[in-house]
Design a protein that fits this description.
By secondary structure, this protein is α+β, with helices and mostly antiparallel strands. The protein has four helices and eight strands; from the N terminus they run E-H-H-E-H-E-E-E-E-H-E-E.
Length: 179
């Protein structure tokens, strides 16, 4: 039997911290649960955006909460900061990014590319694949320059502390500045 997630109507200016305290959750737990069920434009970041009026909240039952937040048993994961990465295990993910520009409701430009993220131990490597403008590689000189400037940041390597915070950022490219 599937149960629809419970929602809570909130007033403008309500903070994530206030809601988490009210529902006896950590901010990270409430954010994770809400972001699982909400529409994409209602995702919560560091705090609740002003346009969000409904929050998805987990059931109050302790056993159900334990299953939701800790399906494999053991202790809850406590995040020390909002700016941490899950530092357990390795992964290799690829994401497609699409950016669209509209003028008077009409799509004028579509930029799309892929980002590849690899994590091994405490190293996260981020690579950007080829950029396409309206399904074509950049062909104008200014478009090619913008693409090359954007590529200067990749591959990007993040070294993480054991807590998941960023210890060091490395950019692999060498820069040559001509005057």
């Amino acid at each position: 039997m599937s149960i629809a997630p419970k929602t809570c109507k909130i007033s403008k200016g309500t903070t994530l911290k206030e809601l988490a305290n009210f529902f006896k959750l950590t901010e990270e737990q409430l954010k994770r649960y809400h972001n699982t069920y909400c529409p994409l434009d209602n995702l919560i970041g560091h705090d609740i955006p002003n346009h969000v009026t409904i929050i998805y909240v987990p059931p109050e039952d302790k056993e159900l909460r334990e299953k939701i937040f800790n399906p494999r048993g053991g202790n809850y994961v406590n995040y020390k900061s909002k700016n941490t990465l899950d530092n357990r295990g390795s992964f290799n993910k690829r994401y497609g990014i699409i950016q669209k520009t509209f003028i008077n409701g009409e799509e004028k430009l579509k930029i799309h590319y892929e980002i590849e993220i690899k994590k091994n131990n405490n190293i996260v490597e981020i690579k950007r694949k080829s950029v396409y403008l309206n399904h074509q590689r950049p062909d104008l000189i200014v478009e090619q320059m913008a693409d090359k400037i954007g590529n200067m940041m990749y591959p990007l390597e993040l070294e993480l502390n054991d807590e998941g915070t960023i210890k060091e950022i490395k950019i692999s490219k060498q820069f040559l500045i001509v005057g």
